[in-house]
Amino acid sequence: MSQPSKRPSPDMDPRPTPGRKRSEASRLAILAATRELVGEQGYEKLSIGGQGRP
Description:
The protein has 54 residues and is an all-alpha fold. It contains 1 helix and no strands. The protein has one helix at 24-41.
């Protein structure tokens, strides 16, 4: 028998998130840009701040 997860699901997280909810178009653009960077540089050089980009 497996143990239940001790972490709450993201849908049940009571903490508010700062700012507005991101639009679906923005979310898809971010994912597309991330895929492009991974294709160009590889996963190992990927960073949030973009330091790996020339």
